Amino acid sequence: MEAKPKRRIVTENGDTGEDLVLATLIGNGDDVGPLVRHAFEMGRPEPLVHQLKNVARKKEAEIEDLCKTHYEEFIVAVDELRGVLVDAEELKSDLASDNFRLQEVGSALLVKLEELLESYAIKKNVTEAIKMSKICVQALELCVKCNSYISEGQFYHALKTMDLIERSYLKLIPLKVLKLVIERRIPVIKTHIEKKVCSQFNEWLVHIRSSSKNIGQTAIGLTASARQREEEMLERQRRAEEQNTGGLGELAYTLDVEDSEQDSVLKFDLTPLYRAYHIHTILGVPERFRDYYYENRLLQLQSDLQISYTQPFVESYQTFLAQVAGYFIVEDRVIRTAGDFLLADQVETMWETAISKIVAILENQFARMDSPTHLLLVKDYVTLLGTTLRQYGYEVGPVLDALDKSRDKYHELLLEECRKQIVTAITEDTYQQMVIKKEADYENNVLSFNLQTSDIMPAFTYIAPFSSMVPDVCRIIRSYIKGSVDYLSYGVNTNFFSVLRKYLDKILIDVLNEVILETISNNSIGVSQAMQIAANISFLEKASDYFLRHAAQLCGIPSRSVERPQASLAAKVVLKTSRDAAYLALLNVVNTKLDEFMKLTENVNWTTEEMPQGPHEYINEVVIYLETVMSTAQQILPMDALYKVGVGAIEHISNSLVSTFLSDSIKRFNANAVSAINHDLRVIENFADERYHSSGLNEIYKEGSFRSYLVEARQLINLLSSSQPENFMNPVIRERNYNTLDYKKVATICEKFKDSADGIFGSLANRNTKLTAKKKSMDMLKKRLKEFN
């Protein structure tokens, strides 16, 4: 292959520099547009056209030179090109025939393709329409379902359905009209649901308030039943302990069922509350509903805490307290089951409001009450309320404190009521020994209060040493103890035995003892009454130990802890003092009666001229009276009291004899009068010895017989009857025979011992030296006594 000749640049004569520049630009393929634009802008396109023609001529010359150079190659290429043209014509002919056939075949297919494309377009539109229709239908179906839920009251499902419409369908609904309608109706429906739910909730509020009383009564009733079972169990345990048998197993298993039992019995429906709160939560306004609930329940509470003053509190307290109990039981169930719906602080605020109002009402009503029974009824129900609500975690201390503050008021009322009963029992007493005909009566009136004098069952008919007043008063005191225990139990202090003991002493000392002392101080009291009162006091003193044991038993205190002597009641000592006062009253009555019988200044002739042949008549009445008194006393009074009565009466007779000799009404007496008094004294001495031994007192009081209390009168009569009365001044003889006589008394009495000239001593003075010697001895005694004094 021949080498290509180098390009030659032919430059003709006359070429300018501008032609060269233009030729270079064209040769390099640069854009000559700016030159053309510039030429026309300058208004000189002719030079440029001339230059372009020059360049064109030059290019033609170059092409001609090039063709000349490659002539042979060009010929070959033209030949080859002619062959290609022939082939191209053939191919073109084939393509034309094929294209014709293809056109014939493809025209039908093209028609079908167009139809198919049209069908596809229709299908796409239909599919889109169906899809849009389905969305609308589904949205409308959900709307219908929502309406159905609303009409059926299934607001939760309605709200969930609306939420589904909002989240999944509202943006996809293609129809703007439908979409706009749904968007507008959703808030309206939510508002409607909220109002409807609030309406149902308000109905529930009314219902739960009306049910609170029944809820509270049921809960308090369960507490009362549990308390009764506990008391019965403790009583059985106490008896078992007294019999040295264990009862702890029963204690361990009885009280564990109460909480679950109470929850199972106290059934009330909180579903409307849960539903309303849940729906408000879905609506996004739970706080508003919580506030609404709290405000309305607080208003209900304030209304429940108002009491009617037109109706006595004792008739309405159960309803009032049961309503409050039911209210807070409901609140406890709400706070335990409704999650964070109700705050503990809110319930605490409501409880503080209620507790302050209840305390104020109780204090006010207790201050107005004048019946211990009414006060006790209210107190019992309040303690049941406290026990019930304490199980639900409420602090009931202020209520129990209010009850404790009214403790003295209750006992004052109870004490006054018992005082009236005791006064009635004592004033209506016949002061006759109680006749018991049946064993049941013996158990009720004697054994029940530990008044028996023997552990052996007596034969019936049985005559008790006390009157009917004793068991009557014991029953009153026992009921007082029961009433006191009923009030003190389940209060602030669980160990209230010391308080009960104080109140027990109070009724025995301030009431029973005072009434007895008033009866004793009554001037119209007789011997039998005084004796029976003294006997009754002895048995009441004995019953005080029973009262203390009974109080301990009711308080759950072991009886052995109060059976020690140092544990006895202070009232026992006071009753013993009153018993002594009754003995003194009895002795005063007996002595007064003895003075009426004796009347020595009237019944004795102190200057008689006749020697007495026996005792005076009055002394027989005295002995008969003493016999009656001592016999009755022996049946009624204990031995120490019998001894005191006998000693007091005998000593009074002795003192009366001596006092009569000292009396100013007795100006003088003679030996015959002394002899007569001596006969009387011997009768009394014989009676004293006989009663002292027959009553068995000689085995108890061996060194203090009844006769020993007549010693002053006996020594005085012996002195006045002595042949040598001046021996009284002999210290040895006086200590042996006249140690009880007082010098002054003897001097006064001896001054009255005078015989007249015609008296017994005077008439026999010349015939009987002994009598003369006795007179001289008496005169000597009188003289020496004057000198001694």
Q: What does this molecule look like?
A:
Belongs to the SEC15 family. Keywords: Coiled coil, Cytoplasm, Exocytosis, Transport. It is a single chain. The chain has 789 residues and is an all-alpha fold. Among the domains are: 175-237 and 265-394, no CATH class; 408-568, Exocyst complex subunit Sec15 C-terminal domain, N-terminal subdomain (Tetracycline Repressor, domain 2, Orthogonal Bundle), CATH 1.10.357.30; 604-756 and 771-788, Orthogonal Bundle (Tetracycline Repressor, domain 2), CATH 1.10.357. It is 75% helix and 1% strand. It contains 29 helices and two strands. The protein has helices at residues 17-28, 33-42, 45-69, 71-152, 155-169, 176-242, 248-254, 258-265, 271-283, 286-304, 313-337, 344-368, 372-390, 397-405, 407-427, 439-445, 469-488, 497-520, 527-554, 570-598, 600-603, 617-636, 639-662, 671-694, 711-721, 731-737, 743-752, 760-763, 769-788, and strands at 435-436, 462-463. α11 (313-337) runs parallel beside α13 and α18 (497-520) packs parallel to α20. The chain is rod-shaped, with a radius of gyration of 68 Å.
Quickly count the helices: 29
User: Which parts are unreliable, with pLDDT below 50 for 5 consecutive residues or more?
Assistant: 1-14, 245-260, 756-767
Major beta-sheet overview: 2 strands, antiparallel
Strand proportion: under 5%
Helical residue percent band: over 70%
Radius of gyration: 68 Å
Structural class: mainly alpha
Topology, number of strands: 2
N- to C-terminal separation? 205 Å
Shape: rod-shaped
Biggest sheet, spatial arrangement of strands: 1-2
Mean pLDDT across residues: 81
